[in-house]
Amino acid sequence: MVEQTLSIIKPDAVQKRVIGKIIDRFESHDLKIVAIKKLQLSEYDAKAFYAVHKERPFFGDLVKFMISGPVVAMVLEGEDAVAKNRDLMGATNPKEAKPGTIRADFAESIDANAVHGSDSIENAKLEIEFFFSKREIC
Ligand code: ADP
Ligand code: MG
């Protein structure tokens, strides 16, 4: 099924100037960039976006990290986009991520792990709405 999912290139990867290399992973695996923007999240934005994790011990550090520099938010579209993006990303902890995945290749630690990707079709819809208006998706 053709799906849409939200991807974020996190501040560590933007800082490392690997935006292009990460986008290439998506495009070369038949995921189309149907929306894209670079932006600086506010603390309010980051807390809202990661609200599901607000009780977790790492929440404060996660928010701090996500606002430490600009991010690139994208909507990826393609066959099984949600699962395909998660496969391309690799495990949350880059040390456990399979070789050749984005996190294995570009991430340093579980905090600074290069990319975010929606974990379900439902969450993808909510996360896409968080970042993009209808007219920005084309
Ligand atoms: P994923 O990004 O792989 O979907 P989660 O949704 O579980 O992972 O967590 C969201 C983000 O919170 C992770 O990408 C990571 O940056 C951070 N995180 C998750 N678990 C930990 C942890 N144990 N310690 C520090 N940061 C964490
Ligand atoms: Mg997640």
Automatic annotation (TrEMBL):
Predominantly, its location class is cytoplasm
Q: Which InterPro entries match?
A: NDK-like_dom, NDK-like_dom_sf, Nucleoside_diP_kinase, Nucleoside_diP_kinase_AS
Q: What are its E.C. numbers?
A: 2.7.4.6
Any GO BP: CTP biosynthetic process
The catalytic activity, as recorded, is:
a 2'-deoxyribonucleoside 5'-diphosphate + ATP = a 2'-deoxyribonucleoside 5'-triphosphate + ADP; a ribonucleoside 5'-diphosphate + ATP = a ribonucleoside 5'-triphosphate + ADP
Out of the domains of life, which is the source? Bacteria
Cofactor field: Mg(2+)
What are the record keywords, sorted? ATP-binding, Cytoplasm, Kinase, Magnesium, Metal-binding, Nucleotide metabolism, Nucleotide-binding, Phosphoprotein, Transferase
PROSITE patterns given for it?
NDPK (PS00469), NDPK_LIKE (PS51374)
Which positions are annotated as binding ATP? K10, F58, R86, T92, R103, N113
Start and end of every Nucleoside diphosphate kinase-like domain? 2-138
Role according to the record: Major role in the synthesis of nucleoside triphosphates other than ATP. The ATP gamma phosphate is transferred to the NDP beta phosphate via a ping-pong mechanism, using a phosphorylated active-site intermediate.
**UniProt similarity note:** Belongs to the NDK family.
What is this protein identified as?
A: Nucleoside diphosphate kinase
Q: Which organism is it from?
A: Helicobacter cappadocius
